[in-house]
Amino acid sequence: MENSFEDVVLPVTSVTSGEIQEAAQGIHCLPVQIVNVVFADNGSEGWVLIDAGMPRSAEAILREAEDRYGSMKPEAIVLTHGHFDHVGAVVDLVEHWQVPVYAHELELLYLTGERDYPPADPAVDEGWIAKLSPLFPNAGIDLKPHVRPLPADGTVPGLKGWRWIHTPGHTPGHVSLFRETDRCLVAGDAFVTVKQESLYQVVLQELELNGPPKYFTTDWSAAWESVKKLASLQPAVAVTGHGRPIRGEELNRALGELAERFDELAIPSEGRFVH
């Protein structure tokens, strides 16, 4: 039987949504329970929503959108990937806004109802969230006819000056977004700034750069290569799917160390996808 997050009683759902933060010019990060959504401005030409939060978070996202943009709907919704905590409100948002949804072509199988993600692996860490992760939904969703592949030329619909970067490992079609002008990175779950496996750390939200959430990551070799790729960009600021924005020397030092020592710092010693 498929898991529905609404039916799962988890301590993490008591982690309330936080205040929106401006991570870089025109880039605002809204924490919704345990995950972030990003409001990305495109000057006077509109805005784009990056990721769609937890189930039952549509009201919070719509309220913030109205406060920021009035009646102006986004040009598009761009998904870094399709895990339940990044697409939780997308069906409701698409129904409300009637806008296209973009994702990497390798992610479309999970966004058109054709394939489910592998179930979460609790063996990867001793933290409470990791242990409870088998309760998390892993079923794909059906966004037909709204979902479509990101442009092959690397551009991001609705966001001039941005490019998308294929950063697989956490999922096959995971992408990150990068703006060259100020080296702003929206990393999704390619790496995060909280130990996502630990309920204690998720509640505290102490800034600590980590690899992708372990319980859902299926290809650790690809995940390492993705972190190396992002570190080579030398981002000035990074907004991640979980945790607070990180910037400057702290970001470059921690990301460089993660890229170099990923096998020690990120890859679990046990788990279905550890070889």
Features:
alpha/beta, 13 strands, Metallo-beta-lactamase, Chain A, disordered N terminus, 6-stranded mixed β-sheet, 7-stranded mixed β-sheet, 9 helices, 275 residues
Task: Please describe what this structure looks like.
Strand 8 (155-156) and strand 9 form a beta hairpin. This protein has helices at 58-69, 84-87, 90-97, 108-111, 128-132, 199-204, 220-232, 248-260, 262-265; strands at residues 21-24, 27-32, 35-41, 47-50, 76-78, 101-103, 147-149, 155-156, 159-166, 175-179, 184-188, 237-240, 246-247. The chain is built from 9 helices and 13 strands. It starts with 20 loop residues before the first strand and ends in a 10-residue tail after the last helix. The protein has one domain: 4-Layer Sandwich (Metallo-beta-lactamase, Chain A). Mean pLDDT is 92; it is low at 1-16. It is globular. Helix 7 (220-232) runs antiparallel to helix 8. The strands form 2 sheets. It has a 7-stranded mixed sheet with strand order 1-2-3-4-5-6-7, with helices on one face. With 275 residues, the protein is an alpha/beta fold.
